[in-house]
Design brief:
There is one protein chain. This protein is an alpha/beta fold and about 375 residues long. A seven-stranded mixed beta sheet has the order 1-2-9-6-5-3-4, with helices on both faces. The chain has a two-stranded antiparallel sheet with strand order 7-8. Helix 10 packs across helix 13.
Length: about 375
């Protein structure tokens, strides 16, 4: 089992990765004074059916457990669902000494974390991820829900008390969801670790059908990269924005299609290819762009932006993104692999570049 400590300006918390992760729960949470008389376990219905009984038994060693489940999918990150959770917590008598546990992927982690951040002005919560994608979202304290005008537009920074990541929970993931998580793995490698990127390129099986040991390596590497960034910039006032590589366009694609129509990872993969193309064209990034296109296609990622979405629509959504600044759209690009930089574009300039990318023009 691997352990990563995430250090923030307000404290630190452990992330356990391995088969024995859940077994650490009682000792760690007791030591952190997070033991609660009442624990609200939030999960989606599919995940709870698979793993709910096992996790509930572990949590019952800490206190009384009440369960709230939601339908699977990005649509669960809604104000209506958030309101239902808060109502349920009040009805069940949760107080400021209570705790919320998030069992699921990034949607559940974001939703449960936001409920924890705002219930009685903030109560502790823990993350128990069940998707590869959640190796990114479960760490760092970003929580939130969606608005029709944009993803994660309503939220708060609220760090978990601990994260318990058992890679066995990934065994039941559909191939499309495993691929979705791999997009964030590749993102971490591109912005921070050229040697890890080379390992991913040289080990295609680790991407397509990873062993448990490979999953532990991948998850731990990604979490360590994210933890190092979060330690320096907890609330995204500086370098934490580098973690948005591929996300400005990716989030716009998700919003334009309708949340849940394309996986987050596939949308981010399209965004990363655009960011790589833009990095080569605008900054002279020394890469073989065609090699990355071929690699992404082999994994199953889209190699361009889905048809039916206008450049005007995407630019409008990108301009409304939290990362936009005074009318300019801020893009995370690469000077070289492992060396990200933020570059601002006026919408008209970026629109012409986006259209050139969509037409397949050389960088």
């Amino acid at each position: 089992m691997e352990t990563v400590t995430v250090q923030t300006g307000t404290g630190s918390y452990p992330v356990f990765v391995g088969r024995e992760a859940l077994a650490q729960m009682k000792e760690v949470l007791s030591a952190e004074s997070a033991v609660s008389r009442k624990i609200l376990l939030i999960s989606d219905k599919t995940v709870f059916r698979l793993y709910g009984e096992r996790v509930t038994e572990q949590l019952q060693e800490l206190g009384e457990v009440v369960v709230f489940t939601v339908d699977s999918g990005e649509q669960a990150k809604s104000f209506e669902q958030y309101h239902s959770i808060i109502t349920f917590a009040l009805e069940k008598g949760l107080n400021r000494k209570s705790m919320i546990a998030a069992l699921g992927g990034g949607v559940i982690g974001d939703l449960a974390g936001f409920a924890a951040a705002t219930y009685m002005r903030g109560i502790p919560f823990i993350q128990i991820p069940t998707t590869l994608l959640a190796h990114d979202s479960a760490v760092g304290g970003k929580t939130g829900i969606n608005h029709p005008e944009g993803k994660n537009m309503i939220g708060a920074f609220h760090q978990p008390a601990a994260v318990f990541f058992n890679p066995q929970f990934l065994a039941t993931l559909p191939k499309s969801e495993l691929r979705s998580g791999m997009a964030e793995v590749i993102k971490h490698a591109l912005i921070a670790d050229a040697s890890f990127l080379s390992w991913l390129e040289e080990n295609p099986s680790a991407i397509e059908s990873p062993t448990e040991d490979q999953l532990v390596k991948i998850i731990t590497a990604g979490i360590r990269i994210k933890a190092s960034v979060v330690a320096d910039d907890e609330k995204e006032t500086g370098i934490r924005a580098y973690l948005n590589f591929g996300h400005t366009l990716g989030h716009a694609i998700e919003a334009a299609l309708g949340y849940g129509k394309m996986t987050h990872g596939d949308a981010v993969a399209a965004g990363m290819l655009f960011a790589l193309w833009l990095s080569k064209k605008e900054l002279g990034l020394g890469i073989n762009y065609a090699k990355y296109t071929s690699w992404f296609q082999a994994i199953g990622f889209p190699s361009n932006i889905p048809g039916g979405l206008s450049s005007e629509q995407l630019l409008t959504l990108m301009a409304a993104d939290k990362k936009a600044d005074s009318g300019a759209i801020r893009m995370v690009l690469l000077n070289e692999i492992g060396s990200p930089v933020i570059k601002s574009f006026l919408p008209e300039k970026l629109k012409s570049l986006l259209e050139a990318f969509r037409k397949g023009e050389a960088a």
